[in-house]
Design a protein that fits this description.
With about 170 residues, this protein is mainly alpha-helical. It has a single domain, classed as dinb family like domain (Four Helix Bundle (Hemerythrin (Met), subunit A)). It has six helices and two strands, in the order H-H-H-H-E-E-H-H. Strands 1-2 form a two-stranded antiparallel sheet. Helix 3 runs parallel beside helix 4 and helix 3 runs antiparallel to helix 5.
Length: about 170
């Protein structure tokens, strides 16, 4: 049994936390952006979950559903949150299963080329990807004088009762 569920479950929680937060923001805050980020708050939240759809396809073999979150067509953050929660269950199950990190997986690159690599490479990128874009959301909100909810692994562990504060 794999212990990969720990970083995967953190990724699930952090992404869901920020999508929930985004869902509660006024429309004008969802359109905020700042230089050095991938786009608006809303576009970044959609991208986080759309990419998770694609990672599930490559890492787990989950076919892309007709209602998959896509950067080009998805606009409803309620749907994004629903899919994020569904994908969290899929990824947590994956993370507790038997995983051959050296097995070969395939992914389609942005240019359409099919890339083959050991699973551990794509898994590391999957976890990095979420952190990168969550940090960009922190930059956007911070640059605009707004605060995000705490979404660090320390805060996740505190929420689970694993870190005791004085």
């Amino acid at each position: 049994m794999s212990d990969l569920w720990v970083p995967i479950d953190y990724d699930n929680w952090a992404t869901e936390t920020l999508v929930e937060f985004g869902l509660a923001r006024p429309a004008e805050q969802l359109e905020l952006t700042t230089p050095g980020t991938m786009g608006t708050v809303k576009a970044t939240l959609i991208h986080l979950v759309a990419a998770k759809e694609r990672y599930a396809s490559s890492l787990i073999g989950l076919p892309l559903r007709d209602d998959a979150v896509r950067e080009t067509t998805t606009t409803d953050l309620g749907h994004v949150l629903d899919r994020a929660r569904q994908l969290s269950v899929v990824f947590k199950t994956f993370g507790t299963g038997t995983i051959d990190l050296d097995s070969t997986v395939e992914r389609r690159a942005a240019d359409g080329a099919v890339q083959k690599m050991p699973m551990w490479v794509l898994l590391a990128q999957f976890l990095h990807h979420g952190n990168e874009h969550r940090a960009q959301l922190g930059s956007i909100f911070g640059a605009n004088g707004l605060e995000l909810p705490q979404y660090s692994a320390f805060h996740w562990a505190q929420k689970l009762g694993k870190v005791k504060l004085p």
